[in-house]
Amino acid sequence: MTTLKEGDKAPGFTAKDQNGKTVSLADFAGKNVILYFYPQDNTPTCTVEACSFRDNYQSMLSKGFEVIGVSPDNEKSHKKFEKKFSLPFTLIADMDKSIVEAYGVWGEKTLFGRTYMGILRTTFVINGDGMISKIIHKVDSKNATQQVLNLLQ
Question: The whole model's pTM is what?
Fold first, then answer.
């Protein structure tokens, strides 16, 4: 599995979003992107994180950032998640986990003593040149947006 570092070129991808539209990282060339990986739609922690980005979305846009969420859920699940929580940003359906693997965020996790493979909640800040400028490995879901902003100051 890939281990990306700050300063690396962000892996390109093409996948469907919650509206069935094909989206690629190249579509955002010249823009700063917050690419965040989360395990599953409509789960408590993932919802808190998505709502942090939703509540601060206009602020992120005004600072020149686009927000993109990625999980292995399908388009239909993403659409329900978007509608239920009025999410104004792109949600990528990575059902084959190709994006997750390219970014190195699929790995072993432990919950209640049980070990399993899953998404390692991670946020990447990608600059307009397609380079990774920041990586957040220990995401504070409630303060996800502020965590990103603190890194950019």
Answer: 0.93
Distance CA(44)–CA(26), nearest Å, equals: 31
Asked if 81 and 87 count as a contact pair (C-beta separation under 8 A), the reply is yes
Helical segments of the chain, H only? 44-55, 57-62, 75-85, 98-102, 144-152
The 10s digit of each residue's pLDDT in 33-73 is: 999 999 999 999 999 999 999 999 998 999 889 999 999 99
Task: Give the whole-number percent of the chain exceeding pLDDT 90.
Answer: 79
**Active-site annotation holds for 51:** no
* 102 Cβ contact partners less than 8 Å away, ≥ 6 residues apart: 2, 11, 13
Q: Annotated catalytic residue: which of 23, 25, 33, 46?
A: 46
Edge-to-edge order in the sheet of strand 14-17 = 22-24, 14-17, 90-93, 65-71, 32-37, 122-126, 132-136
Q: How far apart are CA 49 and CA 44, in angstroms?
A: 9
Indicate if the pLDDT at residue 112 is higher than 90: no
